[in-house]
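Page 47, continued from p. 46.
Same chain as before, 361 aa.
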Amino acid sequence: MGNPQILIVDDLPANLKVLRDALEPEGYNILGASSGEAALKIATGALPDLILLDVLMPGMDGYEVCRRLKRNESTRHIPVIFVTVRDDKEGILEGFRAGGVDYITKPFEKEEVLLRVKTHLEIKLLTEMLAQRNKELERQAMELKRANQRLQQEIARRKQAETERDQAEAHLSLISHQEAKRWGIESFIGKSKTIAGILDDVRKLQNVGRTSVLITGESGTGKELIARAIHFGGTRADKPFITVNCSAIPRELAESAFFGHVKGAFTGASSSRKGYFELADGGTLFLDEIGDMPLELQPKILRAIETGTIMPVGATREKKVDVRIIAATNQDLEAKIAEGTFRKDLYFRLAGFTVVVPPLR
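Result:
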C-alpha cells in the first residue's frame, strides 16, 4: 500500500500551501482543489484517503460539497475534516450534520493538523481491515452453505450471523482543550430540577478523572453529549475521546477491534493495528449501547478496566493503558443480568457513578 493521499480544498492558494507544507514532509501525497466543483471531480476520480475541506468558498460551499460526497456511493466512505475559523460553533455543528468527522481551525497549528489527520487515517484503515475480514467471513459462510444444503437450520443460523457482522463505525473527534470549552454544557442542558441535577453530576465527574460512568436513558436524550461534556470539561480534554457503538461490532472481530492485534495474528492481519483501548489511551472510551456487548467479550473488557492492561490478539505481552470508561445504554441492565446476558461484575464496575437522563417528552 502506498502513502495515504489527501485532497485539500481551499480557494486561497496561501492556505493550500500551508497545509501542503505541513503534510508532504510526513509522507502524504497531496492533491489540491480551489473550488467545490473541482473537489467533487477530483474526489470521484482519485478517491483520496482523506479530505481537508474549507467551509467558505465562492459558489458551492464546503457543507454542500460534503453532502454530495456522502450521497455518492464511491466517495461516502472518505472522511472529511472541515477547515473553519476559530469560535464558529454553529459552523462546526453544521459540518458534523453534513457528514464531517472533525474540524481544524484557522490559523493552522501544525501539530493539531498532523494529529487529526493521523488519527482519522488510522480509523479508516481499521474500518477497511474490518470490512475485508468481514468479506472473507461472508465468503466462507457461502461455501459452507453450498456444502450443507440439507442442513436448513444451520444455513439459517449462518445467514443470521452474516447480518450481524456489520462494519464497525468509530466516531472520533479529538478536539483541543481550548475549543472543547467553547461547546459548554449549558448550551444543551435544560433548566428543570432534574436537568440541573444532571448538570451538577457532570461538573463533579469532570473533576474525577478515572471514575467509570454509566449513563442511562431513552434513545435521543443526549447521552453522548453528556459523555462529551464530562470528557472535554475535565483533565482529559486534550486527549482522545473515542466513541464505540457496541451493537455495530461483528462478534468475530470484537476482540481485535477493542484490543488491537499484531501482524499475522489471523488471516488478513498484514500489519499490527491498535484497538479502541489503545487509541483512547490517556483519554476517554465511550461505550455506547453497552447492553449489546457480546457476553463472551465482557470478562475481557472487565479485566482491562480493572487492571489497566490489554492483550492484543496474537501478542505475548500485555500493554498498559490509561483509559476512562463512560458507558451508555437505553436498556435495563439489571434485567439483562437476570436473563444471563450481561455480567453483574461488569455492571458494578461500570456503574461507579450513574447518570439517569429523563425522557424528552
